């Protein structure tokens, strides 16, 4: 591997994630990246009204060894707005999106990075469906995710198994060259549409998945699946 990538920027959009944010930051800090890559963590607090802010700031103060940029939106805007603010704060060579929960395992960063560096990719997704042992929480999320992926494949000539995955890894300069407009969960379909429109076939690697329940804090709703399909159609036919 002789790719010049040296720093992975990890963007964590967080909205009322007091239950999981500390455990997540600990897991992120424990990962040793391949190729001796450095980490840069960017937590974007989406105006949470729980203890997310205090927890992140105290973690940052207690762990100066982990480069951590903390920023906050002045009002609650949604995952997409948080990710976009996060992208603007990054200085790494590549960027991964990391939910502020424990559904995906930061140890999988390396599985993604190995393929990403070896193949010199612009975009690589972690697929929860390529690991048959993974469990899936709610049938309607499972079917909705499959449907969104099917629509993305048909409209954008992709061969994805998991378009809605949280783990999306990008070359930073490439991602920054894509103008994004999303504010909510339509980040995923918008970025997939716009990457595909640049003529890129998005590759995938298997990742682990530990779904959380709505009681545990899962916030996405079935309506977001419909909105995802509308977003895919919009960028294919309208814009
Ligand atoms: N619902 C919601 N989540 C937000 C908001 N801002 C940031 N987030 C974060 O977005 C992430 C995704 O939320 P989840 O409820 O786990 O949804 P998910 O099904 O894993 O969503 P995707 O991985 O985006 O498909 C979490 O880290 C949230 O904290 C917001 O305003 N509303
Ligand atoms: Mg999640």
**Shape, per Cα inertia axes:** globular
Q: What is the gyration radius calculated from CA atoms?
A: 17 Å
Overall average pLDDT: 94
Small molecules held by this entry: guanosine-5'-triphosphate, magnesium ion
Please provide the count of β strands: 7
Give the helix tally: 8
Largest sheet: 7 strands, mixed
Instruction: Report low-confidence residues grouped into runs of 5 or more.
Output: none
Any idea of the CATH topology?
Spore Coat Polysaccharide Biosynthesis Protein SpsA, Chain A
Which percent band covers the strand fraction? 15-25%
Summary, kept brief:
With 239 residues, this protein is of the alpha/beta class. The protein has 8 helices and 7 strands; from the N terminus they run βαβαβαβαβαβααβα. β2, α2 and β3 (68-72) form a beta-alpha-beta unit.
How are the elements arranged and paired?
Layout: E1 7-14, H1 21-30, E2 38-45, H2 52-62, E3 68-72, H3 79-89, E4 94-97, H4 109-118, E5 123-127, H5 139-156, E6 168-171, H6 172-176, H7 187-197, E7 203-206, H8 222-238
Parallel strand pairs: 1-2, 1-4, 2-3, 5-7
Antiparallel strand pairs: 4-6, 5-6
Helix pairs in contact: 5-8, 7-8
The chain binds guanosine-5'-triphosphate and magnesium ion.
């Amino acid at each position: 591997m002789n790719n010049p990538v040296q720093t992975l920027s990890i963007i964590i959009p967080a909205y009322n994630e007091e239950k999981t944010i500390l455990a997540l930051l600990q897991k992120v800090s424990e990962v040793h990246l391949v190729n001796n890559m450095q980490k840069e963590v960017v937590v974007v607090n989406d105006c949470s009204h729980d203890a997310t802010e205090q927890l992140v700031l105290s973690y940052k103060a207690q762990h100066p060894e982990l480069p951590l940029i903390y920023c906050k939106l002045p009002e609650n805007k949604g995952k997409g707005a948080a990710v976009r603010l996060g992208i603007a704060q990054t200085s790494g060579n590549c960027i991964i999106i990391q939910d502020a929960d424990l559904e995906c395992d930061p140890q999988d960063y390396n599985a993604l990075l190995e393929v990403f560096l070896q193949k010199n990719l612009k975009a690589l997704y972690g697929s929860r469906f390529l690991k048959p042992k993974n469990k899936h929480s709610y049938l309607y999320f499972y079917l909705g995710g499959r449907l969104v992926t099917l629509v993305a494949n048909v409209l954008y000539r992709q061969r994805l198994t998991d378009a809605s995955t949280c783990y999306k890894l990008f070359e930073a300069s490439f991602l920054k060259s894509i103008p994004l407009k999303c504010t909510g969960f339509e980040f995923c379909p918008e970025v997939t549409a716009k990457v595909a429109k640049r003529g890129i076939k998005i590759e995938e690697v298997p990742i682990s998945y530990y779904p959380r329940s709505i009681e545990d804090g899962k916030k996405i709703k079935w309506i977001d699946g419909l909105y995802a399909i509308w977003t895919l159609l919009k960028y294919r036919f309208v814009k």
